[in-house]
TrEMBL record:
Coiled-coil segments: 568-618
Species per Swiss-Prot/TrEMBL record: Erythranthe guttata (Yellow monkey flower)
Region of interest called Disordered, as start-end residue ranges on this chain: 101-120
Region forming the signal peptide: none
Protein's UniProt name: Ubiquitin-like domain-containing protein
GO BP term, pick one: protein transport
Taxonomic placement: Eukaryota, Viridiplantae, Streptophyta, Embryophyta, Tracheophyta
Keywords annotated in UniProt: Autophagy, Coiled coil, Protein transport, Transport
GO molecular function: molecular adaptor activity; protein kinase binding
Length: 721
C-alpha cells in the first residue's frame, strides 16, 4: 500500500489516499467525490502533465509515488457561468485580558497557615502566587492561540503553493495544444500563400493571355473555318465563365482567410497575455517571528516563577515586586502585541488565500475558453484545407490557357525533329542498301572463282548436288511510308547458309564445354571476388587476394594465374586512387556544387540568347531574308548558315523579313561540280536536286540548318560572349 497525494485546485486542499498500483483511477475518483464533494463527471485528474483516464489503473502512470502529486480540476468551476468560490473563514477563540483566577492549591507545603504570621512579606506571598498563576494562564492561552493561528497561516501558504503548481500544469497542457494549432496555422498559410500567388497571376493575366493566343496564327495547313489562331484551340465562352467563377470564389475565400487570420491573432494575443500573468497574490517567504517571540517570553516567564516557600530569605521576597512589574508591564503586553500581530497576519493570509482562490477560478475559466477556441480552430483548419484543394481543382481549367502556347511550340519543334530523324533514317537505309549490294557482288565473284577452279576436277552434277552452283539471293531495303509521316524499314528475302550456322553452333558448344570446365576451377575465385566487393575496404581486400594468387600460381605454374594477379593489383591501385579522389571530391563538394550551379546558369543563359558565333544544336539563331529569297543566319565566324527548305515550308505565304528559331539539326555540305556526281543511285530530298541553290563558289563549305520557328519568343538580343 502507498499514499496518493491529491490536491484540489480550486481551494488547494490536500487528501492522502491509501491505495496501490492496481487500484483503478475510477475508484480514486469515487472516493474523492465522497470526501471533496466534486461530482465524478466533473473531475479532471492530471499527473506529470498527463490526464488520468478512469478505465486505467494507477500503475499506468507509475502511481502511487511519494514524490508526485495528482491535481484535481473541477470542470464545473471552469465554465463561464460558474459562481465564484465561497470565501474561507477561520474561527479562533478570543483570549480575555484578565482571565478568571484558578483556585489556589489545597496544599501549601510544610507551612500551610501563613495568616498568623506577623511578617508582612510572608502575608503577601499568597497574593503573589495567585497573580503569577494568573500570568501563567494568560501567557499559555496566548501561546496556544498564537500557535493555532500560525499553523493556519502555514497551511494557507502550502495550499497557495499547491495552486501555483496546478496552474503550471494547466498552462503546460494549454501550451501543448497551442503549439499544435500554431503548426497547423503555419502549414496552412504556407500552402495558401503559394496557391494564392499562383491563382492571382492566372486571374490577372487572363486577358493578356487570350490576346496573346489570338495574335498567334497557326500554320496554313492546320487552319480551317473554325481554327485560325491558338485561341481557337479552347472554348473561349466557357473559359470566360470559368474565369468569372474562379474570380468570385477567390475573393470569397480570401475574405474567409482574413477572418481566420484575425481569429488566430486574437487567440495568440490572449494566450501570450495569459502566459505573461504573474501570480502576485500568493504569499511567499513570510517569517513568523512573532510566534517565536511569544514562545520565548513564556519560557522565560515560567523560569522566573518563584516558589511560595515561607523559608525564603527576605532578599528573595524583595525580588517578587520587580518580577510582578516585569510580568504586568513587559512580558504580558509584548505577548498580547505578538498575538495581535499574528491575528493580523492570519487576516492577511485569509484575504490573500481568498484572492488566490478567485484568481485560480478566473484563470482556469480563461484556460477553458482558450481550449475551446483552439479546438474550434483545429476543426476550421481541416475545413479550410479541403476548400484549398477544391479551389485548386477549380483553377485547373484556367491553367489550360497558359499551356496552349508552350504546347504548340513543342509540337512544332517535334515536327522538325521528326523530319530530320526521318531524313537521317533514309540516308542510313541507303547506306545499308549499298553495303549489302557490295557484299553480295563480292560473294558472287568468290563463288564463281571457286567453281571455275574446282569444276575441272569435280563433275558438274556432283557440284550441283552439293549446292555449289547456288547463287546468293539479293537483299532489298525498302523504306515504306507510314501514316503520320513515319517510316518503316523492312528487310526481305534473306536466306541463311546452313553450313556456317552449324559451324558456329559447334564452336559455341565447344566454348560452353570449356567454360564448364573452367567455371568449377574459378568458382572459388569468384566467391572471393564477391566477398572483396562487399567488404568495407575494397582496395585492401583486392591486394590480399592478389597475394594469395601469387602462392596459388607458384603451386600450379599457370601463366593465367599470374596475369590475373597482375590485373587484380592494377584494379586495386585504381580503386585506391578512385577512393582518394572521392574523398577529395567529398571535401570539395560545396565547391563542385557551386561550379555546377554556375555552369547550369551559364548554359541556361546561353540558351536564352541569340548566338552570333558558330551555331550548335539547341541554340537560338536569327535568319534574315536575303536578296536571293533565302534565309541566311546572322553570324560572325561563318556567314554560310542557311535555313533548310523544310523549315521554310512551315511558314505562311507572306514571308517575314527575319525569323528567330531554335536549332534542331545542322547539316554540313560542300559545293561540288555537277560533273563530280557518281552514277550510284541515292535517296535524295527535294532540296538536294539543285547542286548549288545558294550561288556559292565550288569548294565552298556551307551549313543547312533545320530550326523550330519561335512564333513569340522573348530572347536576349545581346551578343553571346
Amino acid at each position: 500500500m502507498g499514499k496518493l497525494v491529491v490536491r484540489i485546485v480550486e481551494n488547494g486542499h490536500s487528501y492522502r489516499i491509501n491505495c496501490d498500483e492496481h487500484t483503478p483511477v475510477e475508484s480514486v475518483q469515487k472516493l474523492l467525490e465522497s470526501i471533496s464533494g466534486i461530482p465524478f463527471k466533473d473531475q479532471l485528474l492530471f499527473c506529470f502533465g498527463v490526464k488520468l483516464e478512469s478505465h486505467s489503473p494507477l500503475s499506468a502512470y507509475k502511481l502511487p509515488s511519494g514524490e508526485e502529486e495528482v491535481f484535481l480540476f473541477n470542470k464545473s468551476r471552469m465554465r463561464i457561468n460558474s459562481p465564484p468560490p465561497t470565501p474561507e473563514k477561520f474561527k479562533i477563540n478570543v483570549i480575555p485580558i484578565n482571565p478568571p483566577l484558578s483556585p489556589p492549591s489545597s496544599s501549601r507545603g510544610p507551612h500551610p497557615n501563613l495568616d498568623d504570621t506577623s511578617d508582612p512579606a510572608l502575608n503577601a506571598l499568597p497574593s503573589y502566587e495567585t497573580q503569577f498563576r494568573n500570568h501563567l494562564q494568560s501567557g499559555s492561552a496566548i501561546y496556544r492561540r498564537t500557535l493555532a493561528m500560525f499553523e493556519i497561516c502555514e497551511r494557507l501558504l502550502q495550499e497557495q503553493e499547491a495552486q501555483e503548481r496546478a496552474l503550471d500544469v494547466a498552462k503546460g497542457n494549454l501550451d501543448h495544444f497551442y503549439k499544435m494549432v500554431c503548426q497547423n496555422y503555419t502549414e496552412f498559410m504556407k500552402c495558401y500563400s503559394q496557391q494564392d500567388c499562383s491563382h492571382r497571376k492566372f486571374l490577372v493575366d487572363f486577358g493578356r493571355e487570350k490576346e496573346k493566343l489570338r495574335s498567334i496564327k497557326i500554320m496554313p495547313l492546320l487552319q480551317n473555318a473554325n481554327r485560325k489562331c491558338l485561341l481557337d484551340f479552347v472554348d473561349e465562352e466557357n473559359l470566360q465563365k470559368v474565369w468569372e467563377e474562379c474570380s468570385s470564389s477567390h475573393g470569397r475565400f480570401e475574405k474567409k482567410v482574413l477572418e481566420l487570420k484575425t481569429e488566430f491573432g486574437d487567440l495568440n494575443g490572449q494566450v501570450q497575455d495569459l502566459f505573461s500573468c504573474k501570480t502576485s497574490n500568493f504569499i511567499k517567504d513570510v517569517e513568523f517571528e512573532d510566534v517565536n517571540t511569544v514562545k520565548k517570553l513564556l519560557e522565560d516567564y515560567i523560569s522566573r516563577q518563584v516558589s511560595p516557600s515561607p523559608i525564603l530569605p527576605h532578599n528573595a521576597f524583595s525580588a517578587l515586586g520587580p518580577t510582578y512589574n516585569t510580568h504586568e508591564k513587559d512580558y504580558l503586553p509584548k505577548m498580547r502585541a505578538c498575538d495581535n500581530a499574528i491575528s493580523t497576519l492570519l487576516d492577511l493570509c485569509t484575504d490573500k488565500k481568498n484572492e488566490s482562490n478567485l484568481y485560480v477560478h478566473n484563470y482556469m475559466q480563461k484556460i477553458a475558453r482558450m481550449q475551446y477556441i483552439i479546438k474550434d480552430l483545429r476543426y476550421k483548419f481541416s475545413v479550410f484545407s479541403e476548400a484549398l484543394k477544391h479551389q485548386n481543382e477549380q483553377f485547373h481549367q484556367l491553367k489550360v490557357l497558359h499551356g496552349v502556347g508552350p504546347a504548340y511550340m513543342a509540337c512544332l519543334a517535334e515536327v522538325e525533329r521528326r523530319k530530320t530523324a526521318t531524313k537521317m533514317y533514309m540516308e542510313n537505309a541507303e547506306k545499308l542498301s549499298e553495303k549489302l549490294a557490295r557484299e553480295r557482288d563480292f560473294e558472287i565473284r568468290r563463288r564463281d572463282e571457286f567453281v571455275k577452279v574446282h569444276s575441272t576436277f569435280i563433275p558438274p552434277d556432283i557440284l550441283a548436288s552439293m549446292g555449289l552452283y547456288d547463287s546468293i539471293n539479293p537483299c532489298y531495303v525498302n523504306v515504306a511510308p507510314l501514316p503520320g509521316g513515319s517510316t518503316t524499314l523492312a528487310v526481305t528475302d534473306t536466306t541463311i547458309l546452313q553450313n556456317d550456322a552449324e559451324t558456329k553452333i559447334e564452336a559455341l558448344i565447344n566454348e560452353v564445354s570449356k567454360f564448364e570446365r573452367e567455371s568449377e576451377i574459378n568458382r572459388n575465385l569468384l566467391d572471393r571476388l564477391r566477398s572483396c566487393a562487399t567488404s568495407a575496404d575494397f582496395a585492401d581486400s583486392l591486394r590480399v587476394l592478389a597475394q594469395s594468387l601469387v602462392r596459388a600460381g607458384e603451386e600450379s605454374n599457370e601463366d593465367s594465374t599470374f596475369k590475373l594477379r597482375e590485373c587484380i593489383e592494377i584494379i586495386a591501385d585504381k580503386v585506391g586512387a578512385l577512393s582518394r579522389q572521392c574523398e577529395d571530391l567529398e571535401e570539395n563538394r560545396d565547391l563542385v556544387n557551386t561550379l555546377c550551379t554556375k555552369n547550369q546558369l551559364e548554359n541556361q543563359a546561353n540558351k536564352e540568347r541569340i548566338s552570333f558565333n558558330q551555331l550548335q544544336v539547341d541554340e537560338i539563331a536569327a535568319f534574315l531574308l536575303n536578296a536571293s529569297g533565302q534565309y541566311q543566319a546572322i553570324n560572325r565566324d561563318c556567314p554560310y548558315y542557311y535555313l533548310s527548305p523544310d523549315s521554310i515550308s512551315l511558314l505562311s505565304d507572306n514571308r517575314p523579313s527575319y525569323i528567330i528559331g531554335q536549332v534542331v539539326h545542322i547539316e554540313r555540305r560542300t559545293v561540288e561540280s555537277p560533273l563530280s556526281e557518281t552514277g550510284t543511285s541515292r535517296l535524295t530530298s527535294s532540296q538536294e536536286s539543285t547542286p548549288n541553290p545558294y550561288g556559292l563558289p565550288i569548294g565552298c563549305e556551307y551549313f543547312v540548318v533545320t530550326a523550330a520557328i519561335l512564333p513569340d519568343t522573348n530572347v536576349d538580343y545581346s551578343p553571346r560572349s
